[in-house]
Design goal:
Radius of gyration: 16 Å
Structural class: alpha/beta
Strand content: 25-35%
Order of helices and strands: EHEEEHEHEHEHEHEHEE
Distance between the termini: 31 Å
Number of strands: 11
Length: about 210
């Protein structure tokens, strides 16, 4: 994901300190309560705690033995959370240099060899990938049009009974309608503020 960085300026008296604003806490698994840090990048939106809680309730709390793909890794909140909950492999794809550097530091701090960092764009990675994943995290920049474009490519990268977790900034019906001949079904969905989120699967209706 390409991010545009904000110009530095003096902190306002009531603003949060950078080390408070640019931290996210892992909420479950072996690294529960550990903190990861990420750069101050415009458009980098770590998935909120309550949304991650809902997501991993949907996924069953543990991802033991699962292979996961985080296509827009950003802060690493979803990828490291998945690894903390037992995923055997988490491929974290990111193309912003500062975000990649932060992901590497967090990987080293957590001692997380199951997390594999790929410094590429999402489309470039998918064009070469031959592996199927049990869970794919898909959180592209809102308004980019990438959600529908990439969903149209993900079916061949998904294992049998695999799911895609996605976040978007508009009603999902509009997104799904732009994917030609799509077999995607919304299995779970929720909303937190302006963020819509849900689990998508192939040929399984909502519950």
């Amino acid at each position: 994901m390409t991010h545009h960085f904000k110009a530095s300026h003096a902190r306002k008296p009531n603003a949060r300190k950078p080390n408070e604003a640019n931290r996210v806490r892992i909420i479950g698994g072996q690294w529960r309560s550990r903190v990861i840090e990420f750069p101050d990048a415009e458009g980098l939106r770590p998935t909120a705690n309550r949304v991650r809680e809902t997501l991993f309730n949907w996924l069953g709390q543990t991802l033991h033995g699962k292979r996961c793909l985080d296509l827009f890794a950003g802060s690493g909140a979803l990828g490291f959370e998945a690894a903390s909950r037992g995923a055997s492999e988490v491929v974290m794809v990111e193309n912003n240099r500062l975000a990649i550097e932060a992901l590497k530091r967090n990987q080293e701090k957590l001692l997380a060899p199951q997390c594999r960092l790929i410094p590429q764009g999402a489309a470039e990675f998918l064009a070469r990938n031959q592996v199927k994943f049990d869970v794919i995290f898909l959180d592209p920049p809102f308004g980019s049009g990438l959600l529908a474009a990439l969903l149209g490519q993900l079916e061949i990268h998904l294992a049998a009974d695999g799911v895609v977790y996605a976040e978007w900034g508009e009603p999902i019906e509009g997104v799904m309608s732009t994917i030609p001949q799509s077999d995607w079904q919304l299995a779970k969905q929720g909303k937190a503020g302006a963020v819509h989120f849900g689990l998508l699967s192939i040929g399984k209706g909502a519950t």
